[in-house]
Every structure is written in C-alpha cells, then in structure tokens.
C-alpha cells in the first residue's frame, strides 16, 4: 500500500488499527482521527442521532476536486476520513471532511445541510474553526506535525487533504510493551514532539488535545512520532454546547481547559501539562488524577516517588513540575520543559528526517522600506529599551541603505545534509543567493560532532511590545557569534559587541541572549529576521569586512553579499586566534522571528 519504498518517506501510507468488533460506537463529540487505515465498514451511529438511509459518508467512487474517494477510513462525531486517490499527482492521500453528525446530515448531490436552524450557528462556528486549523497546519513543515497539502470549501462543508502514513498510535504501542519504556526511548519521543510544539507555540497556536491516541509512531515502535488531531472544530462545538466532560480527556486536560477564568488562561503551559501527562502514563501505566478532582483533593502521587531508581531525577522532576495543577505553579513554556528535561541543544534528527532549523513560517515579506528609513527592526529598538543611549536610533535611521536583497525564502523545515569533514573547504556562495540560503548551507556543512542548537523564546514579536530572547547551546566548547539578516537586506554582527565581549561557551552549556545590558525590542518595519548562530572552536573576526559600526553598542554592519575578494565561506569569519594553525571546526544553527504590528 505504500506509495514509496522509503520507510522514512513522509507520504507513506498510514495504517491505524481499527476498532474491534463490538466496540462502542463513537459519541457525537468524538472526532475522527486525522489519518487511519484498514478500517471496517463504518459503525452504526449512536441511537439518538438521526441519519438518513444512505449514511453521512460520501459514496465510493465520488470525486471531490481531483480526489476520488476509495473507501471510508474512519467516521466520528465531527468528521469523516476517507482514503482517496489524488489524480493530479497520482498518489494516495487521506481526505478529511467536516461533518458534525449531531448537527448536520448528507442531502442530495452530496450537499451537507444542518438538521435544524437552531444548529446553524454552531455548525458554522465549527466549520470556521476546521478551516482555520487547516490553514494553520498548511503553513508548517515539521517531521512531528501532520501536513496539510490543501483545503477548500464545497458542498456546504470543508475538506482538507493530508498524507496517508503507516504507523501505530502511542496508546496502542504502550499497551503492547511488556514493560514501561526506557528513558532513552522516552527522550527520543519527547525531543521531536517538544520541538514541534515550540513551532506551534511560536505562532500563538496551542494543540490542547495532546494524548497517547493523538500521537502516531510512524513505522511502529521506536519510530518518529507524529502529532495529530488538533480537534479545533470539536472544541468550538463543545464550548457552544457545554459538552466539556465528553470532549476533554480526563487526566490529560489541565484545569484551565475546564473553565476559562481570568486567573487561569490557556497557553503554552496547557500543552506542557498534557505532554507531561503522556509521559506519566507511559511510565506508570495510568493517567494522572483528573485536574478537576485535584482542585478539591490533590491525590497526585509524584513520579519521583513512583519511578524512583528507574528513571533519572531530571526526568521525573521535570514531569512532576509540569503536572502542577495550578497554571502559575507549572512549567510555563515548552522551552522551559525542554530545559528541565535536558533536551535543549541535544535534538539531532535521525537519517531521513528533516531538522527545523528555523522555528516558524514567515509571513509574506513586506516590501523593502525606503532607504531613508532602512534599519533592522530589532536593532532599531535598542534606544527604546531601558538604556536610552543617545545617537543609537539616529545612527540606524541615517546609515546608508544596503542594496535590496531578493525576497527571503519561506521559513520552513530544511533537510540537513551530511556534514563535511572539518578540513573540507567551504565552497563560495553565489552572489545572487539570499542570506537565509547561505545560512542554511553553512549549517549543513558543520564539522562532524559539532552540534549547535538555537531557538527563540517567541517566534513572533509584536512591534514596540516584545523583546527578543533566545538560547544557544553546543556539544563542543567554542566561541559564539550571532549574525542578523533583516528584511531590508542588511547583515549585522549582533554578538559579541561592545556591551558583551565574552562570547565563550562550554560544551553542553546553554547561553541565553541578549544580555541585560543590551536588550533588543521589536520595532518597525515588520518582517522576518533571520539569525545565524555560529560556534567556532577558536575565535573568529568579522571586523575586516565591516562597513559601519554603531558607536553605542559596537554592532558591525557587514556586506550582505560578501566582501570583494573574501575567501569562500566568508560568513564564518576570519581566524583570530593568534597563531597560524587555528582549528577550522565549527557548528551552526539558524532560527527566525517575525516582527508584526
């Protein structure tokens, strides 16, 4: 059934175990899985739901756009998933249709209509949420997030098309394990999942339905995880019908999901709780006590007590902290959770996977600003953040505008090529290539064993409100350099600078930037900011190629297309270690932030 012989192919067929005979039929508020396979004929609906004689699913052989329905894979209370043939690209896909069975039914000519006018507002709210979810997922490209190829509205409803991949749910995998998984197995699972959630959270998007049955292990036990079923339409309809007890998964849903009150808003900490509950279940074989009950009497038994001696203190304490019942006492972000787990800087994709070198997709680039106003958004805010250094803002506003660069590539996952040997020369980059492409090319050529990880605390920064914060870690000792490419084509050495000269980092250490003495606040113009983080075995220098220098901070402005006569790989700087045999070893990473109004 596979469309490719490559076991790591992201478009491979997904096969999920079907419900066994006699299992309970789905309730109106159970969502169909995003991708399923090898399913029997759809189960009968609950008795209290009226259905027409032909059922709600599309007939086999019918066409929706270029997609032909082959069979029904799964049908739940909020959607139907079909196995379909994409006749345009000649591939098999999963086609998901918005179909809330409690609110609508299939009429003539495959049209979907509401059962009663009193359901129309709820149906439309769910439809809007379904479309918004598809639009959001279509922007991301990460190995642990399900892809959306396309989506559209038709027949009074909406459809989205996704890959059909072979795999098994984490829930089923854990049931089949003779004993709890090892810590190494769990960390291999958590590394890509937490990274994917960082990408989502950077766009102010929260999954809010993380559970073992919403995680698929592609190609079975020990393979890469895939996060499924955001269930956006289900949540919206549930909120409007007050059916929260059916929608939320007890044990995985934190208290703030039961009742949104000003003191308990949902945020990154909501997904942190659910993911920690998944780990708790994997280790103990049972979910944590429901959060609602814990508010009355907290009988949660710490994992540090239940799993003492079987897992590291770091892992069990990280999970216990993330499962605090009150949101303000819990781990606040996925970045913090990764740090508590010891994952920051240590996630390396397996062969055939993609590494998300840039944290989130870029919006459509804004037109290049006029020369008189040309400046780097983040850097321009320096004069506004606490220091009020005279002349800094004026320097950025009046410096000569660099030549416009080509529009930046969409910020997406980039495959990591095999690193070149440390002694291999770095090929010269064509002048016409944009800076993000050059950054990614240098990352792919990093020295073997010299791994660098860099990530922003937020991937979207609101102009005049948010400050940039990011972390850098490396597997080897070295010297950190940060270059910033702006939407106007400028290239600036952001770090080290006159306010922060000690750029040394130890092996396995995490460095958080910028320092308190040089905060960076987002300001106009809006657009994507690309950061190249370089860690070298010995000091490097970019000073010979700088064209200007900020008198207050000492940020070097570099030529965006490479200085005349510069050696190949000029973005790696020149040796500055005081002797002729400087080590050329380096590691690198790339991340981006989006400055928005």
TrEMBL record:
This is Protein kinase domain-containing protein. Pfam families: DUF4384, Pkinase. The keyword Nucleotidyltransferase does not apply. Residues 1-11 have a biased composition (Acidic residues). Keywords: ATP-binding, Kinase, Nucleotide-binding, Transferase. The keyword Kinase applies. SUPFAM superfamilies: Protein kinase-like (PK-like) (SSF56112). SMART domains: TyrKc. Residues 17-28 have a biased composition (Low complexity). Residues 1-60 are annotated as: Disordered. It comes from the Bacteria. The lineage of its organism: Bacteria, Pseudomonadati, Pseudomonadota, Betaproteobacteria, Burkholderiales. Residues 67-343 form the Protein kinase domain. PANTHER family: MITOGEN-ACTIVATED PROTEIN KINASE KINASE KINASE 20-RELATED, SERINE_THREONINE-PROTEIN KINASE NEKL-3. Transmembrane segments: none annotated. ATP binds at residue 96. Gene3D superfamilies: Transferase(Phosphotransferase) domain 1.
